[in-house]
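Renewal narrative, Specific Aim 1. Our central claim is that a sequence can be written position by position from structural information alone. The example that follows is taken directly from our test logs and has not been curated for this report. It begins with the structure tokens describing the chain, in the order in which they were read.
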């Protein structure tokens, strides 16, 4: 069969006005993972990161009509349910999905992170009776699994029993009991029971992550992969990776539980591409002016770096630079290796520290110290800061990678902003250096050229 260019996934769920959970999280997840998302809205919630102040359910016929109308024209390859709110909506959804027969991921939403009930108590039996048997995959957390099975879940053994019960006694094809709140350790472990076997999906636990919408986005990611035709195990593997990233790089807004960030999955690779291209563009300018740069390349070589967006940049692996650096070569310069993430240590740390003070400063380059360059920079009105490396505290010297952050921190303290230029005149075993900072590599290179040119 010919593969579809646009697999279609449907979310049958409520709206979160805060944009963190519900259909809003689902549609972002669908888009990030590359399917066309369609919607059957069940309920409108007035919600933010810490409370739900209103719920307005749609008529069940309207929910069913949305699914059928989309199906008739666009088609549906797989779907997911989220907030179903009441037993009439549950019956309408179960009946419609059963008739159409697409794979369905059921996220048995009961209570919002903020504590508000999103499923009426009268609807619990309907959820178990009508939704569980039609679930290709059901994704309860500890609390939801306890409600569905009537079991107490205190450890992974209990989670296994609950997952097996949901499949063998209640009729789901596969059940994943999410381990977020079970035996809390270094890893987050989800237990799946499917086809007579248990599976474990592990990821490092993100301690300070954003969790509002986790269940929504995770189940939506599984639905996407099913819509693409992946088998259940592969679908859950991808969804686990996806949700770990979405939690780690959450959207830090609001006073309560901040929302997951499904866009991180595509935003980070896109940014990385843009950053590499920006460094390459600036390297071309260096090559065009290589005779001018030749004299100001230090013995250790120069590097030119750029970090990804400060929302995402954490380590030197989030900063691109020249592998092998830029070195003097004849009367010009040579770009030794390719532009790669993690290729710089010194300039990368300088930028990572600068970004803590001013997130717009994402690029830097080092030049050989020359007092004429410093004089010209001062004349041009740049903010220039001198650092005496002899004052570097012992505890900084002794820790690998601490010197450059110390230089940046000390410079910032002096002028209460990120300077254009930070220089030192060296110390025992430390080459004297000028460091040029700016927003982009092209800006940094033009700044460097403006002081190199006589
Ligand atoms: C409209 C709507 N649907 C679902 C939820 C649940 O999201 P959250 O409270 O973050 O919990 P999980 O996604 O982790 O189950 C909601 N709040 N609103
Ligand atoms: C060796 C060295 N020291 C520098 C300083 O600023 O003190 S810049 C530099 C060269 C560039 O290093 P990288 O490739 O790790 O960014």
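The sequence written for that structure reads:
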């Amino acid at each position: 069969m010919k593969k579809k260019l646009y697999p279609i996934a449907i979310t049958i769920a409520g709206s979160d006005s805060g944009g963190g959970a519900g259909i809003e999280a689902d549609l972002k997840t669908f888009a990030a993972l590359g399917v066309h998302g369609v919607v059957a809205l069940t309920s409108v919630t007035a919600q933010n990161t810490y409370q739900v102040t209103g719920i307005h359910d749609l008529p069940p016929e309207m929910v069913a009509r949305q699914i059928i109308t989309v199906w008739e024209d666009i088609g549906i390859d797989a779907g997911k349910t989220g907030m179903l709110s009441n037993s009439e909506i549950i019956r309408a959804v179960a009946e419609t999905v059963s008739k159409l027969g697409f794979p369905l991921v059921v996220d048995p939403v009961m209570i919002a992170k903020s504590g508000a009930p999103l499923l009426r108590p009268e609807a619990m039996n309907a959820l178990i009776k009508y939704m569980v048997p039609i679930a290709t995959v059901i994704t309860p957390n500890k609390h939801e699994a306890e409600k569905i099975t009537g079991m107490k879940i205190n450890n992974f053994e209990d989670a296994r029993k609950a997952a097996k019960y949901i499949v063998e006694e209640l009729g789901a094809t596969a059940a994943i009991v999410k381990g977020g709140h079970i035996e809390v350790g270094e890893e987050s472990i989800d237990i799946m029971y499917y086809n007579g076997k248990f599976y474990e999906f592990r990821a490092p636990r993100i301690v300070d992550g954003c969790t509002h919408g986790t269940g929504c986005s995770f189940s939506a990611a599984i639905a996407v992969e099913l819509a693409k035709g992946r088998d259940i195990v592969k679908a859950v593997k991808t969804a686990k990776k996806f949700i770990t990233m979405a939690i780690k790089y959450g959207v830090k807004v609001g006073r309560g539980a901040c929302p997951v960030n499904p866009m991180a999955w595509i935003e980070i690779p896109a940014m990385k591409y843009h950053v590499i291209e920006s460094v390459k563009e600036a390297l071309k300018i260096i090559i065009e002016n290589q005779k001018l740069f030749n004299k100001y390349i230090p013995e250790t070589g120069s590097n030119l770096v750029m970090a990804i967006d400060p929302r995402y940049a954490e380590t030197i692996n989030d900063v691109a630079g020249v592998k092998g650096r830029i070195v003097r070569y004849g009367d010009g310069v040579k770009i030794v290796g390719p532009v790669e993430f993690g290729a710089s240590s010194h300039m990368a740390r300088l930028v990572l520290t600068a970004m803590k003070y001013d997130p717009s400063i994402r690029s830097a380059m080092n030049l050989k110290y020359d007092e004429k360059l410093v004089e010209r920079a001062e004349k041009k009105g740049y903010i220039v800061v001198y650092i005496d490396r002899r004052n570097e505290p012992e505890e900084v010297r002794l820790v690998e990678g601490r010197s450059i952050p110390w230089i940046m921190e000390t410079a910032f303290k002096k002028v209460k902003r990120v300077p254009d230029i930070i220089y030192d005149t060296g110390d025992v075993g430390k080459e004297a250096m000028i460091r040029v900072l700016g927003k982009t590599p092209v800006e940094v290179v033009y700044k460097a050229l403006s002081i190199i040119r006589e």
